[in-house]
Amino acid sequence: MSQLLLDIAPATQPTLDSFVAGRNLELLSALRHALAGSSSERSFYVWGEVGSGKSHLLQACVRATSDMQHSASYAQGSVPQFAEVVAVDDVERLDAAAQIGLFDLYNRIRDSGGMLLVSGKQAPLHLKLRDDLRTRLGWGLVYQVHELNDEEKTEALTRHAEAKGFALSAEVAQYLLRHGSRDLPSLMALLDALDEHSLRLHRAPSVPLLKEVLQRILESKA
């Protein structure tokens, strides 16, 4: 029965609506306008630390495009196939051949009027990529994705919990922020583990259950 409960738990996928903007409101607005066709911007490069939300934004844009019945493709650390909207995550991981592939893909998308979204850990000027590719990435809109503060992380965690079908109490949220990793993806994963543990025990998510989850994680690393 517990396995069945886990199987029917709603899967959560990144969306633009579920992205807590924080200091990234201008970026979120620019992406929405571009996807809606109310902006002429067709190339975006976003950069920031691990866990800042870059992947969420790229995947959300691809999903939004697919929902509008347009072709879209996404790849992390590699070059995806050509589509109306293409998202390339972790561009610094591309090898020499993939960099040539992305340069060619950039030109195809520009000529077709498509849209390209690329992410990396650094601003274009500091990327260790081919000069011509680095230059192209800097031609479009470039945004730094700023990490959320604790209040904004709490909002993001609350939305994530709601999407999975349960209410996140203030006590659990505070304990997560005090004792979990600081980056949001790790906090989300810990919240998912708490949800699974609570479903297995048929109990509401709570601080005591969260402590059990954290203890199991510590024991698994010992």
What are the defining features of this structure?
222 residues, alpha/beta, Rossmann fold, Helicase, Ruva Protein, domain 3, 2 domains, five-stranded parallel sheet, 9 helices, 5 strands, 11% strand
Task: Please specify the SSE layout and strand pairing.
Layout: H1 2-8, H2 25-36, E1 43-47, H3 54-67, E2 72-76, E3 85-89, H4 96-112, E4 115-120, H5 131-139, E5 141-144, H6 150-164, H7 170-179, H8 184-201, H9 207-221
Parallel strand pairs: 1-4, 1-5, 2-3, 3-4
Helix pairs in contact: 1-8, 2-3, 6-7, 6-8, 8-9
Give a short overview.
With 222 residues, the chain is of the alpha/beta class.
Task: Walk me through this protein's architecture.
This protein is an alpha/beta fold and 222 residues long. The protein folds into two domains: 22-144, 3-Layer(aba) Sandwich (Rossmann fold), CATH 3.40.50.300; 148-221, Helicase, Ruva Protein, domain 3 (Orthogonal Bundle), CATH 1.10.8. It is built from nine helices and five strands. Helix 1 (2-8) crosses helix 8 (184-201) and helix 8 (184-201) packs across helix 9 (207-221). The chain is elongated, with a radius of gyration of 19 Å.
Mean pLDDT rating: 90
Quantity of strands, as a count: 5
Largest sheet composition: 5 strands, parallel
Q: Give the amount of beta strand, in percent.
A: 5-15%
In CATH, the topology of the largest domain is named: Rossmann fold
Question: Uncertain segments of ≥5 residues (pLDDT<50)?
Answer: 1-11
CATH class of the largest domain: Alpha Beta
Query: How far apart are the first and last residues' alpha carbons, in Å?
Result: 30 Å
Major β-sheet strand ordering: 2-3-4-1-5
